[in-house]
User: Fold this.
Amino acid sequence: MPIVVAVPKEHVPGEQRVAVVPEVVQKLTKSGYEVWIEHDAGMNAYYPDDLFTAAGAKVASSRTGLLDGARIVLCIQPPTVADIDQLSEGTIIIGIMNASRNLEAVAHMRDRKITAFALELVPRITRAQSMDVLSSQATAGGYMAAILGAGNCPKFLPMLTTAAGTIRPATVLILGAGVAGLMAIATAKRLGAVVEAYDVRHAAGEQVRSLGARFLELEINAEGQGGYARELTPEEKAKEQQMVSAAVARADIVITTANIPGRKAPLLITSETVAAMRPGAVIVDLAAESGGNCELTRPGRTVHEHGVTIMGPQNLPAQVPFHSSQMYAKNLQSFLTLLVDMDGALVREYTDEILTATLLVHAGEVRHGPTRELLSGGGQ
Ligand code: NAD
Assistant:
């Protein structure tokens, strides 16, 4: 019997991506899976049903029937309680679970004995790079942030020498040079801007310079666990804000991506700093969902303060859904290889390091420690 994989249409408003694309369906069916996709699941990402059927998928007209018959469900956003109700005991569901913000769904999956893998918990080790949805989607987000910044800036980005005069290139500043920041740097460079960047991790400096941007040096190195940044001390924060303010004031576009896992995003741009910016400058705050790097950011909104446009976009990867879906689907394809043995049967024990790290709920238990603590009323 083939393993039945189901791909529902994403339900969150504004979510345009789909978890699987036709190219990946073809690979999965070749490996022996039977893939079912909900009618119009790929429509908003420009993958119509007929491309899926040509790749070997079957299209389900009823979401209930699709979920009910699945052995594995592949999704992007966490499942709703109503969807979980349709799943049979032991169904495996794989997606971005954002467990701390979806405790009700986690508890429901536990009680209904669903097995859930949370892809945002994929460890950042070399072997797991092809499964790393945080990286693939941050790449899309960083790209879109640069495009949004350019599209809302009243200036050209490149230097132009024309019969109507010479135009000086715009200056783009990137704060936080992780995956999204590096992609924003690369995109702004390709658009011809002069690019400066800053990160609290010194290791980021070399990557920034290799993209042809200038790295702003500050005597702080806040390299924390697992290659992530640690929170700064109050003295370090004050020093950082002072240096950042000077760079922000000379920029035409500022893209902020600074984050510390599990914490509120660090405040890098105060309202006084915004007031000192050039008229027409743009801030694109990619940390809007985790509290914002700019004091004036409003999540999901664009505001105008002191002549500056401040954008707090949410779910930017969904704004470039064709390629975000493609990358996400490849990540899933790679992840699925861990779940089957040499004979193509589902593994019974989740002993692989990547499976242990991502296993959120299994056999009636919440396996992820921090989520278990939150559910029992402890944690943050
Ligand atoms: P992230 O989204 O958690 O944070 C974005 C950036 O913000 C980071 O570079 C961080 O250093 C920076 N930051 C935090 N506080 C700051 C502050 N006060 N001022 C300025 N910058 C600040 O990070 P991410 O993009 O997910 O990547 C984090 C790390 O993980 C990087 O070292 C990256 O190279 C590494 N990584 C490893 C792998 C792998 O090995 N498989 C894959 C992806 C990323």
The first strand starts at residue 4 and ends at 7. Residues 133-152 form the longest helix (20 residues).
